[in-house]
Amino acid sequence: MANDKKISADLVRHIGFLGRLRLSDDEVALFSEQLSSIVEYFEQLNGLDTSAVAPMAHALPIHNVFRPDEPGLTTRPLGPDGVLANAPQRDGSFFRVPKVLEQDSA
Known about the structure:
The protein contains 3 helices and 2 strands, in the order H-H-H-E-E. The chain has helices spanning 9-18, 25-43, 79-83; strands at residues 90-91, 94-95.
């Protein structure tokens, strides 16, 4: 198949750079051919008549499964003692955590 939409080696290297990949010259050549084949395959879809196909967001029918937002379906609040029951350390009604900021002694 003739490929008019050739993916260049420079574009493959750029994609590799964005993905933090070190690609050898052999890999660049291989991926250039493979990506070009993928683009060519998708270009075939441009030749299809899709005017009778309704736009859709998903191929399968889906719906949200949220529960109704009604009072009484939730549990009662835990309160400070319930929330802090499994805390490794606490200070009154607060979580006690190690310091994460250092102060400069200038």
